[in-house]
Design goal:
heterodimer, A: mainly alpha, B: alpha+beta, Dipeptide-binding Protein, domain 1, Dipeptide-binding Protein, domain 3, eight-stranded mixed β-sheet, five-stranded antiparallel β-sheet, 24 helices, globular
Chain lengths: 325, 731
């Protein structure tokens, strides 16, 4: 297995170079270094000289990919792409175009993101599985029929609607929690309760329906029928047999998203003014801060690759038939 | 047994209900986003929508940044809070400086000498002794006189989140050298000040200093250094006269320079602060001058988490400015002079919370968690009623909360520009003029303001907005090429006149008389999102009134800017907010040598009329008075005749204030106005408690509904479970 992991890590390097290359190309197709300078210097009274100075100061005066004027390896290394990309591979994100240390920003902002994403993930998993199990328990009844319809309705509604309606009902009309904001420590609970509940509710329709399908598929298998024939109660059948076996696809699915919890939620963080990494990425794109955009895309790619690797490993843990070689 | 169980449930439910009621009865609302201990504190709560890019006074140039640093840094001058028209008054200076004028041979000229004779003007600024900086670790010294924190190690800095985590803070007196230091910073390549280009044209020697600093900075960085001590670099045009006096030499006559002395660009910078923040170990913690200002103002920024909130605290070393004793007519009656002579500031702390989205921000204002608010388009109908005569008033719901409305026409202009270099819409010949004037009449900006701005604006009559010298109201102020004065008000000229002008321009009915082809014009815009569709359709419709086809060319912001720089845009919308209350700051937008394509300036229409330019060169150096007004009238008339812009709109700002906010008067020029505001925190706490009582019954109702929905199914399932296995097996 170790050889497999090493091999996967080595495969990741060309993938990350590719991702970096594409990010770089896409960003600079839309924004030239001159555009970036104008964005940062403001729209009033900016002179060409000031733009040149800004670019020179931040290394954006070099060619993008190939420096014909340089000597030897400098043709490659004396370029914006090399200068801005190579240090990423040792996780040195450098300074943003606005002058802030990106690593420090990420370290600070990942905690609010995690404070929201982890409860949404764990409580969401628990809630969605429970709802699916309840529907399976009452399968064929009016509760199953109406519950499924409700889930379809829930999954058809935009997440934005949940946010606005949640803020309106719970924050504005019922005055139960702050409409938006964030605080550290235990006080964070007051601010996270509503976005977490919305995060769970917004995914309830799709997830619970999928889990229900998995459980139903499992519930019709021979070993389950055997268990019932032996006289086991339906609750025991569901929790002891069906749940355990249906958790294999569920767990492997959720393991893939575990590392991405760091990246936060763009919508929830933005509407609830939670200072996490989701809103950090949006900020960076709006401010045309290439250094931050590049760092966040790189980090997202690394975490995604890590998630896929963890998924593979989790297969071997939950299904002994799988061997990584 | 069952009875006991039921009693138990009833008991628990009663206890829970009692707990909920007790909690609901508490004075402190559950939805208060601030700590409970702040409930009755003298704190002003406001928001910011995006994190500021810079808080360095040499770099900041946008209103959201000024909202913070203008209360921390103190340039020599400021605008009087209450007087109108806007008047410059000393802040740290002893007086508003008057320039001494010199000719090319260095001979003193009279104050009213023609601008052409003036080779140099000298401003001598004397600051008041005894002003001290806020307490800051950059000034802290040990018993041996050495700075305590100018050589921090990585270990010492490892746990710092802010400079105020360092235990020792000190202060020192403000001196003229700090102002000189800051002016030199404008030329520093690493600072990248947006006004370096402009100021290097005016301040003697600034450009040369910029070149020297660039070379020195390159060498310093090669040596691994992070700081240049600007005290070692001379700046020819800025001289330190004594501890409290400095002189600035300006090329030629540039009377608007005095307005720049009221902007943070010219605020003092202690070298100790720059030295302190230049440490790499602090930069790695994002503790930099760009994020933690060091000033002499009424407040100091003690918390700067631009991702969440920023906090200004009262500066204990503030020099004790007093609330103004004079104001504009009506200020006394409005209660704005009740605090005359009292020491500033009135508020202890100002909390800026990050609020990206409009809906939560608006709702929190209504709940009393923000003290003031603008009105977004979405919330406009909830907040304001517009009467048949255009008069505005608050809705009953807001009036019942004691909320007040303040409006002010901004010193800004949003216009539709014609690229004067374009062969179809440009040019100063009669054909081009008539075409542009026809379009100017056809574009019904009254309708635009009503539909797209909720009536928040006035149709502009020329380049100078209300409140700026040279703007005229009434019949004398209307643009006679677009409006006529009837029944005591300006009325747009009839469409028939626009059609006649269009025909005279060679496009009868919107058809080119020479080619017989329809006239097609191109409107260059940014975005082109679905939200913009109605607005763009409106523009198409206005042009269609003349038979002109308007083709919208939507592109992203960067490409649009590129088109403007290259001169390939044809018709566009643009805007300008005043830097200072002088007509020069608007008329320079039409000055030929300021053209965007040829000179990279702010004249986006590339308008160049030699007569206008000659008058501008005379006007800009003159003091306000009848002679200047006469020149401005001539210039405005030329511009109206040539019509390089459809003059567009002077927008109106609407601001809502809660009943507990006092001393609030819109001031469109000053940014350091927090020190004048007053809050009644007890009234605020009472209102918040009244407006935010928790409402729990919907939760109980929801729980009951869920229980009722599930109960029959559960009962059915339990019956099924109780059946003997054989019975079940047969089914």
């Amino acid at each position: 297995m170790i050889a497999y992991i090493v091999r996967r890590v080595l495969y990741a390097i060309p993938i990350l170079i590719g991702v970096n290359l594409i990010t770089f190309a896409l960003f600079f197709v839309v924004n030239t270094p001159d555009d970036m300078a104008r964005m940062h210097l403001g729209v009033k009274r900016v002179t060409p000289e000031a733009i040149e100075r800004w670019k020179r100061e931040r290394g954006y005066d070099l060619p993008l990919f190939w420096n014909g004027a340089a000597e030897g390896a400098g043709k490659l290394t004396e370029t914006i792409f090399y200068r801005k990309s190579v240090r990423l591979f040792v996780f040195d994100f450098g300074r943003s175009d606005r002058g802030r240390d990106i690593g420090e920003d990420i370290r600070q902002r990942m905690w609010p993101s995690l404070a929201l994403a982890v409860p949404v993930f764990l409580a969401g998993l628990l809630t969605h599985v429970t709802v699916a199990l309840v529907l399976v328990l009452f399968r064929g009844s009016y509760l199953d029929a109406w519950g499924t319809v409700t889930l379809v309705v829930l999954m058809s509604i935009s997440a934005l609607f949940y946010i606005i309606a949640g803020q309106y009902l719970v924050g504005k009309l019922m005055h139960l929690v702050p409409i938006s904001g964030y605080a550290g420590g235990l006080d964070a609970v007051r601010f996270l309760a509503l976005p977490a509940a919305i995060g769970i509710l917004a995914n309830l329709g799709a997830n619970a329906r999928w889990y229900r399908t998995l459980f139903l598929e499992e519930a019709d298998k021979d070993y389950v029928r055997t268990a019932r024939a032996k006289g086991l109660g339906e609750l025991a059948v569901l929790f002891r047999h069906v749940l355990g076996n249906a958790m294999i696809p569920i767990l492997t699915g959720v393991v893939a998203v575990l590392p991405l919890l760091f990246m936060g939620s763009l919508l929830l963080e933005s509407f609830f003014a939670i200072p996490g990494l989701g809103s950090y990425t949006i900020d960076a794109i709006q401010a045309q801060d290439f250094a931050e955009v590049r760092a966040m895309v790189f980090l997202g790619s690394v975490l995604y690759i890590a998630g896929l690797l963890l998924t593979d490993i989790s297969y071997t843990l939950v299904d002994p038939r799988v061997r990584l070689g | 047994m069952e009875e006991a169980l039921q009693r138990g449930w009833r008991g628990r439910a009663a206890a829970l209900a009692a707990l909920a009621l007790a909690a609901a009865g508490c004075a402190e609302p559950w939805n208060n986003p601030y700590p409970a201990r702040e409930a009755r504190a003298n704190i002003y709560y406001t928001d910011f929508q995006e994190r500021p890019k810079h808080l360095d006074p040499a770099r900041s140039y946008s209103s959201n940044e000024y909202a913070i640093i203008a209360n921390v840094y103190e340039p020599p001058l400021q605008y009087h809070y209450l007087k109108r028209p806007y008047t410059l008054v000393p802040l740290t200076a002893e007086a508003v400086p008057k320039p001494r004028l010199y000719d090319a041979r260095g001979r003193r000229l009279p104050d009213d000498a023609p601008a052409a004779q003036v080779a140099e003007s000298v401003y001598e600024i004397r600051i008041r002794p005894g002003i001290r900086y806020q307490p800051h670790p950059a000034f802290a010294r040990g018993p041996d006189g050495r700075f305590l924190y100018h050589h921090l190690t990585a270990r010492e800095a490892a746990r710092l989140r802010s400079p105020y985590d360092l235990p020792v803070r000190a202060t020192r007196e403000l001196t003229a050298a700090d102002y000189v230091y800051q002016i030199k910073r404008l030329a520093h390549p690493a600072v990248a000040s947006p006004i370096y280009g402009l100021m290097s044209e005016h301040i003697v020697g600034l450009r040369e200093l910029g070149r020297r600093l660039e070379a020195a900075w390159r060498e310093a960085r090669a040596r691994g250094e992070r700081w240049l001590d600007l005290r070692r670099f001379a700046l020819a045009g800025v001289e330190l006269v004594d501890r409290y006096t400095f002189r600035v030499r300006i090329r030629g006559h540039y009377p608007q320079f005095v307005y720049w002395l009221a902007m943070p660009f010219f605020a003092p910078m202690p070298w100790e602060a720059e030295r302190f923040y230049a440490q790499g170990v602090l930069a790695e913690r994002n503790i930099v001058l760009d994020w933690f200002p060091v000033g002499t103002g009424p407040y100091m920024l003690t918390v700067n988490n631009p991702n969440r909130r920023m906090v200004l605290e009262r500066n204990p070393e503030f020099h004790g400015e007093r609330y103004p004793a004079e104001g504009a007519p009506g200020d006394h009656a409005a209660g704005l002079l009740a605090d005359a002579g009292r020491p500033l500031p009135f508020i202890d702390r100002v909390v800026f919370s990050l609020e990206r989205e409009e809906i939560p921000r608006w709702n929190k204002f209504l709940q009393g968690y923000y003290d003031m608010s603008g009105i977004s388009e979405d919330a406009f109908d909830q907040a304001v009623r517009v009467g048949a005569g255009g008069e505005v008033s608050l809705t009953p719901a807001l009036r019942a909360k004691g909320i007040r409305l303040q409006t002010a026409v901004l010193a800004s202009v949003y216009y539709l520009g014609f690229n004067m270099l374009d062969p179809v819409v440009g040019g100063l010949d009669e054909r081009g003029r008539k075409l542009r004037r026809a379009i100017s009449i056809a574009l019904d900006y009254e309708e635009y303001i009503s539909i797209f701005m909720n009536g928040r604006g006035v149709p502009a009559q020329g380049p100078i907005p209300p409140g700026i010298f040279g703007h005229e109201e009434g019949e004398a102020g209307i643009n006679p090429y677009v409006y006529e004065w009837r029944d005591g008000r300006a009325r747009r000229r009839p469409l028939a006149e626009a059609r006649r002008l269009l025909a005279e321009a060679g496009y009868p009915g919107g058809v080119d008389a020479r080619t017989g082809k329809p006239l097609v014009l191109h409107f260059d815009v940014t975005g082109g999102r679905p939200d913009d569709k109605a607005r763009l359709d409106w523009f198409r419709k206005q042009f269609a009134k003349l038979g002109i086809q308007l083709v919208v060319r939507a592109t992203d912001y960067n490409r649009f800017q590129e088109k403007m720089r290259n001169g390939t845009a044809q018709i566009f919308t643009w805007g300008w907010n005043a830097d200072y209350p002088d007509p020069e700051n608007f008329l320079f937008l039409l000055y030929g040598p300021n053209g965007k394509v040829r000179h990279g300036g702010e004249n986006a229409a590339n308008y160049a009329n030699p007569e206008f330019d000659r008058l501008f060169e005379r006007m800009r150096a003159m003091p306000n008075g009848p002679e200047r007004l006469a020149l401005i009238r001539r210039m405005v008339d030329i511009a109206r005749r040539d019509a390089p812009w459809v003059w567009g709109v002077n927008p109106k700002a609407y601001r809502l204030l809660h009943a507990w906010v006092g001393n609030a008067k819109p001031n469109l020029m000053a940014n350091n106005t927090l020190k004048y505001l007053r809050i009644d925190p007890h009234l605020r706490a009472a209102r918040r408690a009244e407006w935010n009582r928790p409402v729990l019954w919907p939760l109980a109702l929801l729980a009951l509904a869920l229980a009722a929905a599930v109960a029959p199914a559960v009962a059915q399932w339990r019956r099924q479970e109780r059946r003997p296995p054989l019975e079940g097996a047969g089914s």
